[in-house]
Amino acid sequence: MSDISAPQRGGARSTPSLAARVLELIASGQAMSRTELAERLDAAPSTISLTVSQLVERGLVAEHGTRASTGGRPRKVLRLGGTDEFAVAADLGGRHARVGVVLPGGGLADVSTVPFAIADGPEASLSRLAETLEHLAEQRGRARLRGVGLALPGPVDVGSGAVTLPSRMPGWNKFPVGAWLRERFGVPAALENDANCMALGEHTTHPGERRQSITVKIGSAIGAGVIADGKLYRGATGAAGDITHVRIDAAGHIPCSCGNTGCLETVASGAALVRVLREGGADVHSVEDVVRLASDADPQATRAVRRAGGYLGQVLAANVNFFNPDAVYLGGILSTLEPLVAAVRSRLYEDCHPLVTEHLTIERASLGPDAGLFGAGQLALQHAVTHALRNAPLNTAAPTAR
After folding, report:
1. pTM above 0.70, yes or no
2. Cα dist from 347 to 296, 310, 318, 351, whole Å
3. Which residue stretches of the chain have pLDDT < 50?
4. Judging by beta carbons within 10 Å of its beta carbon (0-12, 13-18, 19+), is residue 359 exposed, middle or buried?
5. How distant, in Å, are the alpha carbons of 30, 111, 139, 370, 375 from that of 145?
6. Where does 130-242 show beta strands of DSSP type E?
7. pLDDT digits 0-9 by tens, 228-280
C-alpha cells in the first residue's frame, strides 16, 4: 500500500521494497505464483525468483502444491509463511463493530457483529473489543496470531497510530490506538480510516487492470477511499477522500458535525436521512429504520433516499471528472438501497464527461459489510510481514534485470 514503495523498473537488485511488495501481493491474494508476481510488478522473472527464494528460506513465504497454467508446466502456489497464520480485525461503527479473522491469501472466518459504544471513549471501548478479538485469537491458536487491524470512523494519522480531530469519536483525539493494541496483543497493529480500509479490501477482489478506483462508504456519515495506481492514496495529511465535508448548495446553512454549515453530510448521509424523515413525521430513529422503510418502498423514504443519492452523485461527479478512475464502488448500509445507487449512477453519467464514463464501472462493493473488515485485516498482515522482513533482511545480490 502507500507506505510500501514499489520496485524500480529495470532494477537489478532484490531490494527490501521489492520483497515488501511481493509479500503484500501474496498476503492479499492478488498474486499466487512467481509468474503472476513478475507480471504485477513489471519485474524480471529472475529478480522475482531470487526474491521469492530468499523469502522461502526465511520462512516468510511457503510453497503449497501447484495449479495448472495456461501453458507450460504447473505453477507453484505461494502463500505466507504458514497457512495457519492469521490476523484479527474489527471495523468500528458508532454502536457496533464487525469483527473477524482474516487469513493470508484473502480468506475471512468467524465474522460477526458485536456491540461497540464508541462514545464511551477509547480505553473503555477498546478494552471490551480486545476481549472479543482475544477470544477469536484463542479459538484459532494465539501462537499463530500475526497482527491486529482496526478500521476507524475518523481521520487516522498512520505514522503516530492515532485518530486526529474526529467529529464523531468523543475522547479519541490523539489517543495512541496503535501503541495500545501492540502492547495488549504483542503483535504488529494496523489502523486506518474505515473508508480507506473498505477501498483496500475491495481493490484486492477485483481484476488487476482496475488500478484507479474510488470507494464510497455511505452510512451514518460519508467517506471515500482512493486507490491510485494500485495503491491507497492518503494525501499529504491523510485526509484524501474526505468528500463528506464538501459544501453543496442544497444544504444551505444546515449545521454539520464538523462545525461548518452546508456540508454534503447534512443532506446525503444516513444521519441526514433520519433527520429529514423525522421532520416529515416518519417513525425513524436510526439508519436501519431508513433502510427498512425504503426497502419496503415507503414513498417518503424512497424520495428522500433518491434525493440523497443525487446529492452524493453531484459531489462525486466532480471527483470522478478530476481523477478519471476505472471504477466507483459503493459500500455502507445505504448502498443496499437500489434507489440511492441508481440516483448516484444517473448523476455520474449526467455530470461527467463521456470520456470519463466510457469504461467506468459503477457498482456496489462486492464484499458488502465485510469490505472494511477485510481491508483492516489485510493491512495487519502486511504490517506483520513487513515487520518480519525488517528483522530478517534479504541479500541484495544482483540477478539479471528485465
Report:
1. yes
2. 24, 6, 11, 6
3. 1-15, 396-401
4. exposed
5. 22, 16, 11, 20, 17
6. 145-152, 156-157, 162-163, 189-193, 213-218, 222-228, 231-233
7. 988 899 998 888 999 999 999 999 999 998 889 999 999 999 999 999 999 99
